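> example.struct
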């Protein structure tokens, strides 16, 4: 039984690590597409699509955290972190739609830093 729990925990932890990496990459893509937003005609489209993908990645992070916690018997802390990140992503989307760059841009930088921190903590 202990071997089964350990294997589940390892698998859940791997999925969590992948979810955090995907999230980090999508946020980095958002920074790149924000630059393109300022310099090209297709930047707005890329940034808009990227926002949806980034939000999906934040939801994937929550799912991975729950799966690493519940069946694997891990700590609930990643669930709190992932849920907080989903809240930040929601605020980021609202600020982007409202065109509030004075808060949207710094929040994006903070989200990238927090995602890199979560990635390196695993």
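> example.seq
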């Amino acid at each position: 039984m202990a071997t089964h729990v350990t294997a589940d925990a390892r698998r859940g932890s791997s999925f969590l690590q992948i979810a955090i990496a995907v999230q980090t990459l999508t946020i980095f893509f958002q920074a790149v597409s924000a630059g393109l937003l300022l310099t090209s005609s297709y930047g707005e489209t890329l940034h808009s699509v990227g926002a949806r993908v980034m939000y999906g990645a934040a939801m994937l992070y929550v799912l991975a955290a729950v799966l690493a916690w519940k069946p694997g018997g891990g700590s609930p802390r990643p669930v709190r972190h992932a849920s907080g990140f989903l809240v930040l992503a929601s605020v980021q989307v609202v600020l982007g739609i409202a065109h509030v760059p004075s808060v949207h841009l710094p929040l994006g930088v903070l989200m990238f830093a927090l995602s890199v921190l979560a990635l390196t903590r695993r």
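> remarks
The mean pLDDT is 90.
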